[in-house]
Amino acid sequence: MNWITSFVRPKLDTLLNRRESPDNLWIKCPECGEMIFHRALAESLQVCPHCGHHMPISPDARFDALFDEGRWDLIPLPDPLLDPLKFRDEKRYVDRLREARKKLNRQDAMAAAKGAIGGVKTVVAAQNFAFMAGSMGMAVGDAILTAARTAVAEQAPFVLFSAAGGARMQEGILSLMQMPRATIAVQMVKEAGLPYVVVLTHPTTGGVTASYAMLGDVQIAEPKALICFAGPRVIEQTIREKLPEGFQRSEYLLDHGMLDMVTDRREHRPTLARLLRLLMDQPPEAPKEEEAPKEKPPLLEAAPPVDDIPAEPLPEASGGAQQAAPSQPQAPQA
Amino acid sequence: MLTYLDFEKGLAELEGKAEELRALARQDPAMNIADEVAQLEQKAKTHLAEIYAKLSPWGKTQVARHPGRPHTLDYVEGLIEEFTPLAGDRVFGEDAAIISGLGRFRGRPVMVLGQEKGSDTQTRLHRNFGMARPEGYRKAVRLMEMADRFGLPVITFIDTPGAYPGKGAEERGQAEAIARSTEKCLEIGVPLIATVIGEGGSGGAVAFAAANHVVMLEHSIYSVISPEGCASILWKDSAKAQEAAAALRITAQDLYKLGVIDAVAPEPLGGAHRDKAAAVAAVGAAIDEGLARFRGFERGALRQQRREKFLAMGARGLE
User: Fold this and answer.
1) Are B116 and B93 in a shared domain?
2) pLDDT grade, residue B209 (50/70/90)?
3) What are the φ/ψ torsions at residue B220 (nearest 5 degrees)?
4) Considering the domain boundaries, does residue A49 fall inside one?
5) Based on the domain organization, do A38 and A82 belong to the same domain?
6) Around Cβ B223, how many Cβ atoms within 10 Å?
């Protein structure tokens, strides 16, 4: 402990933190340069209202936007062994971890929640790139396993939003072992006959892409996200040539058959609701937008459980019920 | 001609001197230097034992990458009878970085998969230095499925710097191919025995090593990233590879303590490259032991064992 660590560093920290605190009411879009009022940006889910550029979004904000009426429950996650290798580079891993935890007020890089999407009970896991580049270590692997087990226990689909620089090097081989571990989680969901949907976000790279992020029944990506195994710089060093514009971006992967669709973040909720209802063999979601009365019907009641589909017309709540199902044939009895 | 590693300089001198003396003796049979040669040889042997007894993680990395180290083809030749290569992923191409085929291990039909680095410039280029492209992993998936259908154990040899980071490989879905291969390893209802014979490089290695029984040769390494790569990212200086090698815990001994691998196969004194036959025999014995562990296991039990093993990892750390 010296003067620098005990006095200068804390002083610097406070200075830096102050600069980061939200007196920045206007945010400049890094893509088009337009200034966006922070509330407008939050409302458009951190997507630039001018050019559609997708900026990072916290797992909580995603959950708010995704789950019906913004209602969700956090799934408690296990707290794995801290720093199993006693790793230190120029800094100790425990210190890096402590800093990240303090800065983001999160335990690690993956959060999981449950709630309903379009009336379908769903488990959602979201990787937080802000936390040590979203890197995959024991905590991320355990989070995926816990989320998958919850999905199986609740007979709910599992939706995972990926974002990571790759494996957490500071956990060495144990970070690599998260590739098979997370793959086992995916297998558990699939064996239970439940959908596993991956939404790839910027950036998803390395061992994360090469395991759970590429094993979805349906593969969705946010626009222009970097999705790759080896990063562009590594490849440029290997082949010693410049890579084409848009290489390894979502649209490029879509063209090469690696994705089902590229979807704007603001469309995730309706897209997932539709997909999950189709995969779970449930009738279309009752529209509820403009003309719906103030007191919205409880969505969960509008969606009967899969194996409990009544033979008579569904007890659709008021609102847009008449638009809901006129041409829709009855779901066949199991 | 043996290639000496930088930490073997003293050894190179001793062995060089002994060789010089032997050459002299050949020219002049009257010269009696047998004692001196024997002494030098003994000294060299003691020195070798000393070096290899306390090989650092970086030293092991160098040994694991030694150009004279036996590669997959050496093990296939030494351990697999009636080896019958099978090729192609049925989608795009054949990947020569992956040796693949049917054969017999101690009389029992098996499926063999392994990365081959090549042994001279020409074969190294042909094998792409053991770096597989998506076709290699898709071929592996196809052949693991076949093995599963016919009830054949799968034996894999792991020796790769990693999956190939190329433009075409990315275009054709390198990440997805690796993910499917790992998934297939975990899915099959036949014993899967993996041996890291040299370098176990990251995802490219895991895709063959999500196995019931994982063996590592004594001086092989298995890591999430190369020490150089880790050094350049975390230390911002690839010259810090030695530090990174130590911090990453990539040695067979550490991984055994962590419960990530199931067995360590001993190497001949001075590393596998000094006595290929002994290395091949040690790996053969380790594979045999692995197969014996799972004799009589039902399909479900094999999958269950694999699953439980990987799920339990990380519960204990290193001091």
Assistant:
1) yes
2) very high
3) -90, 170
4) no
5) no
6) 28
Sort out which chain B residues have CB atoms less than 8 A from A247's CB and list them: 167, 170
Q: Which residue in chain A is spatially nearest to B223 when comparing CA positions?
A: A173
Average pLDDT, chain B: 94
Chain B residue numbers with beta carbons less than 8 Å from the beta carbon of A227 are 175
- Cα separation, B200 vs A19, in Å, equals 44
Could you say which of A172, A181, A209 has the minimum Cβ distance to residue B175?
A209
Does the N-terminal peptide bond of residue A84 adopt cis geometry, omega within 30 degrees of 0? no
- Distance between CA A118 and CA A270 in Å, rounded? 7
Question: Under a CB-based contact definition with an 8 Å cutoff, are residues A323 and A287 in contact?
Answer: yes
A288: pLDDT strictly greater than 50: yes
Q: How distant is the Cα of A206 from the closest Cα of chain B, in angstroms?
A: 8
Q: Token pair 């920045």 is at which residue?
A: A24
Per CB-CB distance under 8 Å, the chain B contacts of A87 are 247-248
Most A CBs within 10 A among B170, B233, B254, hence the mutation to make, goes to B170
- Residues B33, B101, single domain; the answer is no
Distance from CA of B41 to the nearest CA of A (A): 39
- ipTM greater than 0.85: yes
- Is the CB of A169 less than 8 angstroms away from the CB of B224? yes
**What are the start-end ranges of the E strands in B144-191?**
154-160
User: Is there a single domain that holds both residue A108 and residue A170?
Assistant: yes
DSSP B69: S
Distance CA B217, CA A144 (A): 32
Cα gap B15→B18, rounded to integer Å? 5
pTM: 0.87
B210/A81 Cβ within 8 A: no
Contact indicator for A239, B166 with CB cutoff of 8 Å: yes
The per-residue DSSP string of A142-194 comes to HHHHHHHHHHHHHT--EEEEEEESSB-GGGHHHHHTHHHHHHHHHHHHHHTT-
- Chain B positions touching A81 (Cβ under 8 A) are 314-317
The CA angle A210-A208-B147, to the nearest 5 degrees, is 35
Q: Can you give the residue range of the structural domain that contains B290? A: 62-318
Quick one: A141 and A205 in the same domain?
yes
CB of A283 closer than 8 Å to CB of A325: yes
Instruction: Report the number of distinct structural domains present in chain B.
Output: 2
Chain A hits for B165, CB-CB cut-off 8 Å, are 229-230, 234-235, 238
* Residues B203 and B162 sit within 8 Å (Cβ to Cβ): yes
Total residue count of chain A as it appears in this document: 334
**In chain A, what is the greatest distance between 2 CA atoms, to the nearest angstrom?**
77
Half-sphere exposure of B162 (CA within 13 A, CB side): 24
3-state secondary structure of B289: helix
Distance CA B143, CA A198 (A): 27
Contact assignment for B223 to A173 by CB distance below 8 Å: yes
The full 3-state SS of A72-116, as one line of letters, equals EEECCCCCCCCCCCCCECCCEHHHHHHHHHHHHCCCCCEEEEEEE
What tokens does A104 get?
């983001």
Nearest residue on chain B to A214, judged by CA atoms? B176
Residue A25: domain span = 1-43
Chain B residue numbers with beta carbons less than 8 Å from the beta carbon of A249 are none
For residues A39 and A62, state if they share a domain: no
* pLDDT tens string B119-170: 999 999 999 999 999 999 999 999 999 999 999 999 999 999 999 999 999 9
Instruction: Label the pairing between strands A218-221 and A261-262.
Output: parallel
Tokens describing residue A290: 């403009």
- Considering the domain architecture, whether residues A77 and A174 belong to the same structural domain is answered as yes
DSSP-assigned beta bridge partners for residue B265? B217
**Using the beta-carbon criterion (under 8 Å), do B316 and A206 form an inter-chain contact?**
no
Q: Which residues pair with A117 in a beta bridge?
A: A120
pLDDT of residue A303: 44
Has residue B1 been placed in a domain? no
